[in-house]
Amino acid sequence: MRVNPSHPRYASLVIREKLVDGLKKGITSQAGLLAHGRGETFDYLLGEKTNHFAIKAIKAAAACLLLAKTPIISINGNSAALAGKEFVTLAKLINSKVEVNLFHRSEKRVKLIENYLSKFDRKFILQSTYKNRTFIPNIQSPRSIVLNNGIKKADTVFVPLEDGDRCEVLSKLGKKVIAVDLNPLSRTARNAYITIVDNLTRAMPVLIEEISYLKSKKPYYMNKLLDKYDNKKNLNSAYDKMIQNIKQVL
Ligand code: PTJ
Questions:
Q1: Buried b (16+ CB within 10 A) or exposed e, 26-52
Q2: Rounded (10°) angle between helices 10-25 and 30-45
Q3: pTM for the whole thing?
Q4: Which residue's CA lies nearest to atom 14 of ligand 1?
Q5: Centroid of ligand 1 to alpha carbon of 162 (angstroms)
Q6: How far apart are the CA of 188 and the centre of ligand 1, in A?
Q7: Distance (Å) from CA 190 to ligand 1 centroid
Q8: What is the pLDDT tens value at each position of the chain, 250 positions in all?
């Protein structure tokens, strides 16, 4: 469907169309549309903008990704459809790779998403094979299937639009988890090392810009930025903002 730019909810409708298109291509799962609806609710409460706490988390995430030795970008059907190109740009900037990791996993979908992302730059997409596959224990979903040269060996995992239990397990394994989640109350948000409470589609361009800026800085500067960051405090600012926004309309 062609969305009219003069529509008051143009941005939101464009995002929906991207996901519907993703579903038609076999990239996004049916449940992905429901997950998006959940996200939209929180986006409303957050005022549908990149708030100061999201900027803070993005800066910390940029520093964390640049300081990481073996960062990996783990993406699912929603993130591929919403910001596939941006993830490949991010991988290039931090010298990392993109790994497809799915909740509603099928070999066909994994390949479809890998092929879709490869169109942006094949070099940065890990290709899943039976040989390079392994398992992470204690994850109660096919998200436990990971790649040896990806999530398994990573010290830092970027997980946009996560579904909870994996974030907890990865953190327990000593990996630094950076999440993007519109729901600041989710298990993912509360367990991640850094949580960017913002819409993925708004957060990605800002993250890319921030990384491009930070790249020329010394590690000392980035470490300082990271040391100052407090995820719990930052999530509290997100809760406060939602309450404030509700009170404003009462
Ligand atoms: O592609 P698959 O098979 O791996 O499946 C992916 C989904 C998203 C279906 C799966 O991971 C899932 O069920 O996720 P949940 O448990 O619904 O969690 C998704 C979280 O992402 C929720 O907390 C939403 O608020 C949030 N969310 C949804 N859309 C966005 C978002 N966060 C940031 N940006 C969005 N656009």
A1: ebbbeebeebbeebeebbebbeeebbe
A2: 160
A3: 0.96
A4: 163
A5: 6
A6: 10
A7: 15
A8: 777 888 878 888 999 999 999 999 999 999 999 999 999 999 999 999 999 999 999 999 999 999 999 999 999 999 999 999 999 999 999 999 999 999 999 999 999 999 999 999 999 999 999 999 999 999 989 999 999 999 999 999 999 987 778 899 999 999 999 999 999 999 999 999 999 999 999 999 999 999 999 999 999 999 999 999 999 999 999 999 999 999 998 8
